[in-house]
Amino acid sequence: MTSFIVYNSAVSVIARAFDRITRSIVDVSKRFHLRTRNMAMGKYSRVDGKKSSNYGLTITIVLIVSLCLVGTWMFTSSWSASDDSAGYSSTDTSKDVDSVTKNVAEEKKEENESVTENSQVKTDPEESSDEKAEVVEERKENDESSEDGEKEKIVKEVESESDESKEKVVKEAESESDEAKEKEKTQLEESTEENKSEDGNNGTEENASETEESTEKSNKEVFPAGDQAEITKETTTKDGSWSTQLVESQNEKKAQESSVPKDQDSVYEWKTCNVTAGPDYIPCLDNLQVIKRLQSTMHYEHRERHCPEESPRCLVSLPDGYKRSIKWPNSREKIWYNNVPHTKLAAIKGHQNWVKMSGEHLTFPGGGTQFVNGALHYIDFIQESYPAIAWGNRTRVILDVGCGVASFGGFLFERDVLALSFAPKDEHEAQVQFALERGIPAMLNVMGTKRLPFPGSVFDLIHCARCRVPWHIEGGKLLLELNRALRPGGFFVWSATPVYRKNEEDSGIWKAMSELTKAMCWKLVTIKKDKLNAVGAAIYQKPTTNECYNKRPQNEPPLCKDSDDQNAAWNVPLEACMHKVTEDSSKRGASWPNMWPERLETAPEWLDSQEGVYGKPAPEDFAADQEKWKTVVSKSYIDGMGIDWSNVRNVMDMRAVYGGFAAALKDLKLWVMNVVPVDAPDTLPVIYERGLFGIYHDWCESFNTYPRTYDLLHADHLFSTLRKRCKLESVMAEVDRILRPEGTFIIRDDMETIGEVEKMVKSMKWEVKTTQSKDNEGLLSIKKSWWRPTQTETIESAIA
Q1: How far, in Å, CA of 790 to CA of 414, rounded?
Q2: Where is the sequence biased in composition, kind Basic and acidic residues (predicted)?
Q3: Cα angle 598-604-609, degrees, rounded to a multiple of 5
Q4: Banded pLDDT at 789 (limits 50, 70, 90)
Q5: If we measure between CA atoms, which residue out of 658, 681, 675 comes closest to residue 713?
Q6: Nearest 5°: CA angle at 239, between 235 and 242?
Q7: Nearest 10 degrees: CA dihedral of 185, 190, 191, 194?
Q8: Which residues are CB-contacts of 623 (< 8 A; sequence separation ≥ 6)?
Q9: Strands of 338-485, DSSP E
Q10: What pLDDT sits at residue 260?
Q11: Residue 536: which of 495, 505, 508 has the closest Cα?
Q12: CA–CA separation, 281 and 293 (whole Å)
């Protein structure tokens, strides 16, 4: 069997050799006859025709004789193989075959190279241009005189040569690409090292200009070292470019690749939301499919949050004729009608000076149901009724329940008081939207079946002026929720008809409220009547000790279990119970905060025994955070980003820690909504302790506000944590929803996240105004555009 294999291999080799020799003879013969004819035509005058003829004949005879001798030897060798060959192992046979195959491949390669050389037109200084014509004519004659079988062989050879040529080109291209990549990497590394070297030398070169020294000093002040890596390199760009540009390559392939933009808008295909609410769409409050299936609405379940299973990734449309909001403080008195085109509230509440139509504006005379003659008079009336309230001193942060258009909170700014107003999205059309368009802090919420999104014991005062909440029913469950949020020693101001009217209904409510507040150990400190507005107000105070609770004859309302955390507020059901007051002086709630404004920059005493968010003792963390944001805001945000702060009124810190960012903005005429994400350390009580306010929120869901309600959004290392739980496209769609056109979005995060966000905002046609980077940390300052997609996406859950 082995002999047979060797024999077949030998025969195959002889056949291929014979074929090659035959083709060589034919080729030489052709060339001989062609040259003979050309000589006769005078094309080779320098060559003797006779000599050439004899030379060609000699070559032909030699080749034929060689062919015969080689063939005879090969056949003889094949048949005279020794019998020992039968003892070859399969391995040896395989090696022999491989060797033969290798030799054939090498011969084939040499033959191809020979053919390639023969096919090329060479230019000899001594040869005339006629030689080129001769080669062309020679090829033409070869094609005409070749037989069909020879043509097929030639075609196969050409295809083979083409394949080898292609393979060779590909290998060469890959080699060049690898070399270019290596060169590019080296250049980038060198560029990085050079930049580092330049950064290190700028501050030490003796010949540096005063401007450069000033800039370096400013950068050190703007981005101080801290627990989080600060950002030192700042560049302002017009086109919003952020990605590092590739080093130009010398080869054509790399040049073509570099001409293709890295950031393709097609990666993110934005569409406009097609929803029943139109430009007022709020995903978690407009989930009409879920609302239709609710079994009961008696506890205002239909006004609560019902978020869709998948957060929308579409962009909310703009109202027709929308304009940039009027600046504060003029916005407190009037807004553009086209921005909030709703007239129902003006029709039903105009006589109470809530809101009125006036040409292209909606105007706000500053009145309300309980203060028709103006909010300032009413605010002073409360202060005079009980001076211990001390607006802007003892009382700094308040909650306004059922706020209407929030004129009460709007005028409290003149008393240095922050009022967070809230109301549901109900038949009082767009009341919270009016408030936010005016530049007054407000949010959508309802007192229904769940706790409010605030910690326990944080508000200095809670206010209700005809807020239409039935406090006295179901064991006082709703009033007990206010008790949870009210600071020990804080006040509840109730301005409602049961306080000053004596009809049967109001008298019954007053009696029930009196019994409930007594059982809750609230002290009725005063009841006063405002003669100008013909209204009255009852002021209650929450106890600062548990003495009253322990002396109650009945445990009604009951005290909450010790395991009940009063700070747990995100989607937690309401319970009709009261939390005990903290009497331990080392814990929060045992004492009243410092007076305003001292409390803003003073670390609460109850932080002494805690570890801070950044790993240091909490007081040190607090101080470091405060100083960092002071420097960043004053040296960079205010003057270094090109932000027109006169257009900034409503601000949100999407990931507040200790509230340092908001505290650093205290001297500007604006307010900050501090948001503590539900998956972040619970530092919201610290923020309230400082005289600021905020809420809990999950940024994988929509925020409880109308579209286009904030002028500036600030996100410090938020998106890199969110990408682990939800899609950043949905988060960016929410950012687009709540940010006003031409509003500013500042994001600080790791470079990978920054790069992804930059691609998204570019695809939304936003303008990247400022980019900054250091190590693996980056910053973008972005301006929202007016662009809206032409294509729409129907959100089935939001279609009536």
Answers
A1: 44
A2: 130-199, 250-264
A3: 160
A4: very high
A5: 675
A6: 55
A7: 160
A8: 603
A9: 356-358, 361-363, 397-401, 418-423, 442-444, 459-465
A10: 40
A11: 495
A12: 20
Structural contact between residues 610 and 718, judged by C-beta atoms closer than 8 angstroms: no
Tell me, what's the pLDDT at 71?
A: 53
Strands (E), 1-102: none
Exposure of 415 in the CB half-sphere (CA atoms within 13 A): 27
Q: Nearest CA to 475 among 555, 541, 396? A: 555
The DSSP code for 678 is T
Sign, CA torsion 459/464/469/474: positive
> What count of Cα atoms within 13 Å lies in the side-chain half-sphere of residue 634?
15
What phi, psi does 698 have (nearest 5°)?
-105, 115
Q: Which of 368, 365, 479 is nearest to 419 (CA)?
A: 368
Matching residue, tokens 């038949």: 427
> CA neighbours within 13 Å on the CB side: how many for 253?
12
**Model confidence at 491: pLDDT above 70:** yes
- 498 upstream amide cis, omega within 30 of 0: no
Query: Which residue is listed with tokens 């090969």?
Result: 74
From CA 44, how far away is CA 42, in angstroms rounded? 6
- Residue 794's pLDDT is 98
Q: Which residue type occupies 580?
A: K
Estimate the crossing angle of helix 2-40 against helix 130-145, to 10 degrees. 130
Cα 482-487-491 angle, rounded to 5 deg: 70
Q: Which residues pair with 234 in a beta bridge?
A: 772
pLDDT in tens, 651-687: 999 999 999 999 999 999 999 999 999 999 999 999 9
Top-confidence residue, 56 or 310: 310
Phi/psi at 527 (5° precision): -130, 125
Q: For the whole prediction, is pTM greater than 0.85?
A: no
Alpha-carbon distances of 706 from 81, 272, 443, 762, rounded to whole Å: 97, 16, 8, 24
**Pair of tokens at residue 628:** 């960092």
Give the pair of three-digit tokens for residue 143. Answer: 């094609």
> What are the DSSP E strand ranges found in 237-339?
272-274, 334-336
Asked if 760 and 730 touch (Cβ cutoff 8 Å), the reply is no
* 723 vs 731: CA distance, rounded Å: 9
What is the tens place of the pLDDT at every residue in 9-58?
554 555 565 566 556 555 655 555 555 455 444 444 333 444 444 445 55
CA distance 543 to 7: 111
Residue 524: CB atoms within 10 A of its CB come to: 15
Identify which has the larger pLDDT, 776 or 344. 776
User: Which of 517-523's residues contact partners 24+ apart within 8 Å by CB, and which partners?
Assistant: 517/479, 519/476, 519/552, 519/554, 519/556, 519/557, 520/476, 520/479, 520/480, 520/483, 520/557, 520/578, 521/548, 521/549, 521/552, 522/483, 522/492
pLDDT tens digits along 556-572: 999 999 999 999 999 99
State how far the Cα of 422 lies from the Cα of 403, in Å rounded to an integer: 6
Residues 430-448: tens digit of each pLDDT: 899 999 999 999 999 999 9
Q: What angle do CA 143, 146, 152 make, to 5 degrees?
A: 90
- On the 0-12 / 13-18 / 19+ scale of CB atoms within 10 A, 496 is buried
Would the pLDDT of 295 be above 90? yes
Closest by CA to 336, choosing from 437, 439, 405, is 437
pLDDT score of 568: 96
User: By the 8 A CB rule, do 696 and 454 touch?
Assistant: yes
- What residues form DSSP beta bridges with 673? 652
Quick: pLDDT tens for 638-661.
998 999 999 999 999 999 999 999
Q: Which residues pair with 710 in a beta bridge?
A: 739
DSSP string, 181-200: HHHHHHHHHHHHHHHHHHHH
